[in-house]
Amino acid sequence: MKVEGQLVDAIGFLLAFTGITLVSIGVYGAVATRNLIRILLSLEVAFNGFLLFILSVVAARSLPATALGVLLVAVVSGEVAVVVALVAAYYRKTGTLDTEVAENVEGGV
Hints:
The protein contains three helices and no strands. It starts with a helix and ends in a 15-residue tail after the last helix. By secondary structure, it is mainly α. The model has no long low-confidence stretch (mean pLDDT 81). The protein has helices spanning 2-32, 36-58, 64-94.
């Protein structure tokens, strides 16, 4: 019984560490590039890493963590749809995905 508890704690720690690593990679990717698609993907990696971290901290404690996970996945799906629509509108308006062009777009973005 004690070994199972230690295994669950070790897996929880590993998932939390993986989540923090994904957040770090995502933030670096968002800061290091100017392409909107790469920024979008990097922010998604960071958000999913944060989701993994939150669920790894909460999941071992209670059953409502599953409901929290389902809710967060639904929020991520809606957020992705909105951001992809905004990127598509930006591309139609400017003809490029470079963020440097945003300063010169007439009428705002």
